[in-house]
Amino acid sequence: MSTAAPKNLVYKFTNDCSDPELFAKWAPEIEKYRAALAANTLDEYKSEVPEFADDAVFNAVAYLYDNKLLSEDEFKLTDTPATELVSLMGKGLLTAVEVLKAFAHRAVICQQFTAFAMEFFIGEGLKRAAELDAEFAKTGKLTGPLHGIPISLKEQIGHAGKITNGGWVGWLTNIPKEDAVTVTVLRNLGAVFYVRTNQPQSLMHLDSNNNIVGRSRNPYNLKLTPGGSSGGEGACVSFGASPLGVGTDIGGSIRAPAAFSGCWGLRPSTRRISTLGGVSSGKGQESVPSVAGPLARDLDDVDLFMKAYINDGKPWDYDPWCIPVPWRSLEKPDPKQITVAIMYDDGLVRPHAPIARGLKHVAEKLTSAGVKVVEFDPIRTKEAYETVNKMYSCDGNFFQKDMVKPSGEPLLPLTEWALSFGDGDKSYSVVDNRFLNVTRDSLRKDYLDYFVQNKVDFIISPTYVGTAPVGAYDGVEGPYYWGYTSLWNILDLPTLVFPTGLHQDPSIDVAEKIEPRSELEKIEHDKYIPANFRDAPINLQLTARRYFDEETVAFGKVLRDILELKH
Amino acid sequence: MSTAAPKNLVYKFTNDCSDPELFAKWAPEIEKYRAALAANTLDEYKSEVPEFADDAVFNAVAYLYDNKLLSEDEFKLTDTPATELVSLMGKGLLTAVEVLKAFAHRAVICQQFTAFAMEFFIGEGLKRAAELDAEFAKTGKLTGPLHGIPISLKEQIGHAGKITNGGWVGWLTNIPKEDAVTVTVLRNLGAVFYVRTNQPQSLMHLDSNNNIVGRSRNPYNLKLTPGGSSGGEGACVSFGASPLGVGTDIGGSIRAPAAFSGCWGLRPSTRRISTLGGVSSGKGQESVPSVAGPLARDLDDVDLFMKAYINDGKPWDYDPWCIPVPWRSLEKPDPKQITVAIMYDDGLVRPHAPIARGLKHVAEKLTSAGVKVVEFDPIRTKEAYETVNKMYSCDGNFFQKDMVKPSGEPLLPLTEWALSFGDGDKSYSVVDNRFLNVTRDSLRKDYLDYFVQNKVDFIISPTYVGTAPVGAYDGVEGPYYWGYTSLWNILDLPTLVFPTGLHQDPSIDVAEKIEPRSELEKIEHDKYIPANFRDAPINLQLTARRYFDEETVAFGKVLRDILELKH
């Protein structure tokens, strides 16, 4: 078992921010934080779960259903989309307290399996739910379009009065006085909060491990990562511990978790959902801005979230970054009028067998449904990958190190990997940064021209080389290659992760022998040992033109029909 | 007469890009360019204009009417808003050729007085107009919502097959193969091009002087500058040489020209009008992005331009920077529902007498009409001014110098001034730039909170300390202080320059004795010698929340009514 990133790919980074002596002083803070998490993972919601090894191939979702860890009513309620829950509450057929209790039960079980949470506050949630119920009883009116809906939040999103650490030990003493805009907006809409979810140190892994609460696991296969950086969200939503969760994404951090754990996840275009308030290393960085967006088990709930957040929440009244543009409710388009291009390989790191199977499956289904399907010939993907990686680190890792320094915490292997992106510690000048932006803008123009001139509506691509990879085992820890997701970040194109309905099957998805085109491709391929990946969801990405977020979701519904996914 | 900027304010800039020997080699290119301009200022459109000294206080607009330099029909036609011209052409009551001929006549006279143009191509425009007429005769249909409308373009906007120099001598050999997006979009809409307008060296003066065709003059008072950097546009549109012009604005470059020469001018929010294609030093700079927008003598034409450009032109099909958000046609709001805050003084450099009179006049008129008028207490204006100035030069002047180097041309005093903004030649790191952005974002948040929490709809402010200042005379050349315009650039708020209907009058607008709060305030106030400014238009700025561009234009129409401006 290796714990370090491959040294030969880590070339321009010096760890001058870790300090074991200083870190030792933070032990009490970490201990206190863990103790609070343990204490607030309320015993009354726990179930008997089997012992499992830390690297067990074990499907917790199947176990949940097979062993009926919830009551019939709880299953029914937590398997109901938020859209319908609101409607039932509006008719007085369900209370917010009932809803939260069921999800809290499922969430605590999820925690027992996946360690997806950083903080539980179920009591506070129940109090809020009771207030909503009282208000409804008095007025007969819902507080808002998300009335009584339990929403899980990535921990980095600032929460007034609660530690907000973003995965950095040194922020364990940070307690914001004000809520992040997203918390304010969702609360105004009637949402109920009860859990904040795990994320990696640096917020720059497609994995979720940190020195505070450790790593989270994938609910469909506990040996695998739930992805990152919104990996707690991916595990939470996919397990059904919340009907809706909020993640953030600067390189794949909503989409890898949604894809790895097996739910829907939307990376909207920039400026639609607020990222103001909270902890991150990205302040003032606008070459490739982070976005926030929803994860859900039902696509209608993605739509509900976007519409409610934007049209009723009016985030532009709180955050000048957000554009006051309504969410357009679109009908599903006629498949016969749509052209989809499929990216089978980005030319840099080809997908593993299960992803290749997923792409082929979707292409066939789309073709049968009358969609025009063409092959996408990747455009300047190498340049895009190299440019976006330089953008991540062009501050010479100043802000990341600045987040580490207060605690001196040791760096995890994937943090070392992230700090080695681009030119690592090399501090860029403003002029260098502008040239990166010029390259980016030229890439955006080329992709726009591709869409417009070829009348292509959508591109479907892998979210990652494989399904969820293993965590820190077998010498191949974590996912290194982000090219499939970060491409859409540098282009700022709305991208929806969707389930194909397929899961990895070691007997079908055998390892292919490939002639690697690069060391990175070799590393990513060597880690595909089929038996490790059993039951891992096979999800893909759907991408459209910038600000065609609504078109993306509307066609997602067509995909749902065509792929016969459960509603 | 001084030709240099005040040395004690120019502190962090070294001229290492001018090279007299190299520059001498460019004399033939400059000569050729000037000769083409002279030759294409067609004699057949010229009128007898009086001799005037280069520093004459002389009202060319009054002269035009008083001496009937156009025929009655030409006056009628060129004084008709574009909105109405299109309608008349749509009814077959007017041809595009007739329209262009009248404007070309007025434009050539404008050139005789103000030297506003860099390039005329009236013949090409007439050919295009004839084609539009032929198409209309055949189909009975207009080509688009700007069918047959002569539109003047700031020269920096790339034009296929035409020299595009942006005011830099070294770009006199630059002939783009492709049109800028704005040229493509406007042509698709039916616009007719015939003239490209003057701008300053560096595109960073609120004046329009360069080493190619020299300086332009203000049509209402030839002693004064028409402003800059879209100064040629300001002179052109205000004189009636075109009904609509396109400028760009990174610190006041649409608004100073509109205000100084006396027309309407809209600085839209970013991403609505394309700036893709053309010559500038701003590539990849997104801390305070440049925007493009219209200038017009009639506000309805500003509305027409925005609506046609956005809704019919769909710039997002060509430029990924543009957001696909329709222009909303709004009714004029009820004045009694509106709150306007007036900024009488930004706390740094107080306005001259005529501007103070204009603000008071507008406040009184608004109050009489039932608008709630409050006083705006400036928010962090010093920080905003210092931050935006650092943003302009934080590349250590790399890109500006890069534009100068090919020709080695001498720097004009206002270029020296611009290159001394912020920390001048000091090259910032990415980290420094991000901290500037953080300050900017916090300013944006404070201004947003001001609007929302005080229920203020609009802020009215000076466009500049005074009316148009003199050019390079009396030891006080040019406008130095940009704080009143650049404030809205760093905040990215839509801002409409509007006429108050008033003009400077030396007998009313006497010089006030002030106790200067800074050297800059002293310099700006010392230059107010009332007799120099006779007849200068008194225009102001109307600012709203980000992306409330439509609300700004709609309330502009209310202002027009209240101020009893001619339609």
TrEMBL record, chains A, B:
<feature type="active site" description="Charge relay system">
    <location>
        <position position="229"/>
    </location>
</feature>
<feature type="active site" description="Charge relay system">
    <location>
        <position position="154"/>
    </location>
</feature>
<keyword id="KW-0378">Hydrolase</keyword>
<dbReference type="InterPro" id="IPR023631">
    <property type="entry name" value="Amidase_dom"/>
</dbReference>
<dbReference type="Pfam" id="PF01425">
    <property type="entry name" value="Amidase"/>
</dbReference>
<feature type="binding site">
    <location>
        <position position="203"/>
    </location>
    <ligand>
        <name>substrate</name>
    </ligand>
</feature>
<protein>
    <recommendedName>
        <fullName>amidase</fullName>
        <ecNumber>3.5.1.4</ecNumber>
    </recommendedName>
</protein>
<dbReference type="InterPro" id="IPR020556">
    <property type="entry name" value="Amidase_CS"/>
</dbReference>
<feature type="domain" description="Amidase">
    <location>
        <begin position="98"/>
        <end position="552"/>
    </location>
</feature>
<dbReference type="GO" id="GO:0004040">
    <property type="term" value="F:amidase activity"/>
</dbReference>
<feature type="active site" description="Acyl-ester intermediate">
    <location>
        <position position="253"/>
    </location>
</feature>
<feature type="binding site">
    <location>
        <begin position="250"/>
        <end position="253"/>
    </location>
    <ligand>
        <name>substrate</name>
    </ligand>
</feature>
<comment type="similarity">
    <text>Belongs to the amidase family.</text>
</comment>
<feature type="binding site">
    <location>
        <position position="229"/>
    </location>
    <ligand>
        <name>substrate</name>
    </ligand>
</feature>
<dbReference type="InterPro" id="IPR036928">
    <property type="entry name" value="AS_sf"/>
</dbReference>
